[in-house]
Amino acid sequence: MLQLSLIIDGCMNFTHYLQELQNNLTRGSERTHYPALKNLVDSGMLGIITTIEEKGNQAGIPDFTVRKNDNLVGYVEAKKIGENLDKIEETEQLQRYFESSIGENLILTNYLEFRWYLDGKLQLKTTLATVKKGQITPVDDAAKTEELILSFLNFKEKVINNYYDLASQMAASTKAIRYGITEALKFEDEQGELTKLKLLF
Q: CB of 39 within 8 A of CB of 51?
């Protein structure tokens, strides 16, 4: 049974969130827990809408896109529960995010640990709970985790007021677009009409 005595909920219901994770722990991949994480982020602030991106999307974007009143706030990348985020930080995928406009405001999480980045730089990390032998155990970090998520949600885009900022923004956006196009072409070559035609001959 999930031990929740250490959790003190503020405006975000971590007790319910962890219970949902526990209930679904043996039911599949990280996508199984997407609804619980979406609900947690959405509960942080009025007007927040978190969109779960399609599996295998070719745009090169993270698992969740977060908006407030239709304005882009940032992104959330979710990995398997308990996965080592130190190793994930070093992957090509995360480095690409950090170098592009995605890295302006990004949360990386394995559902239990949360890391918040601005401009690709780590700002805050927290551990809400740990998992061992299929049992999720909370740690006393709910207030700090709420602070991290609210800081992420309160992000405001930088005002571009000089040529250097404009050039940096354009370069970051170009990297994201180039990757999206490259991945789309790969997908088309592997799964699209060209491959279907090849199979006919």
A: no
**Per-residue pLDDT tens digits for 21-70:** 999 998 767 789 999 999 999 999 999 999 999 875 555 789 999 999 98
Nearest to 63 by CA among 42, 33, 84, 85: 33
For the chain, percent of residues with pLDDT exceeding 70: 70
Both tokens assigned to 107: 């949360």
pLDDT tens by residue, 127-137: 999 999 999 99
Question: Which residues, in sequence order, are bridge partners of residue 16?
Answer: none
Determine the Cα angle at 80 with ends 176 and 188, to 5°: 40
